[in-house]
Amino acid sequence: MQVRHFFVVLSAILLAAAVGIISVFMGKTVQPALEEQAVSTQVQRLSSVSSDIASGLNSAAIIVTAMAETVQDTPLDHDALTTYVPGIINQAKNQAIAGGGLWPEAGMLRPDRDRDSLFWGREGDGGLGYLDDYNDPGTVLYREEPWYVAAKPLQAGQISWSAPL
Fold first, then answer.
1. I want to staple 128 with a disulfide (CB 3.0 to 4.6 A). Which of 23, 62, 100, 120 is the partner?
2. How many CB atoms lie within 10 A of CB 92?
3. Helix or strand holding residue 101 (H, E)
4. 0.70 cut: is pTM over it?
C-alpha cells in the first residue's frame, strides 16, 4: 500500500511540476509573442485604414483642384458651371464624396443674386442631385458659415476641410 501511495503522491507532484513549468514557459515566452503578434496585426490594420483615408482625401483633393481650375479657366457663367461642376464632382464615381459645389460671392455669377450657390448632393441611387438649399433666403447666408469663413483667406491651391456637419 505504501508503494502505491508513494507513486500517487509522486505522480501528483510531477503533474503539478509539469503544470507549473508549462505555465511559467507560456507566461515568459508564448504570451509575449502572442501579444506582440496581436499588436503588430492591429498596427497593420490601422496603417491600412489610414492609407484608405489618405487615398480618399487625395481623391477628393484632386476633384477640388479640378473644380477650382475649371472655374478659373471658364468664364463665370452660371449655366456653363451648372453643366461642368456635377461632372467634376462625380468624375471618380466615388460614393464617399457626399457632394460638392461652388459658393460664389454676391453678384459674381449673376449680378442680381446675393446667393448663387451651385451645390450637388449624393442621392439614394448614388447619383448627384442639385440642391438649392444654400440659396434659400430663410437660411443663414452661406458666406457667414464657419466653413466658408475659414476657406476665404486661403491662397490658390490650398484646400481646407470643414468639420463634419
1. 120
2. 13
3. strand 99-102
4. no
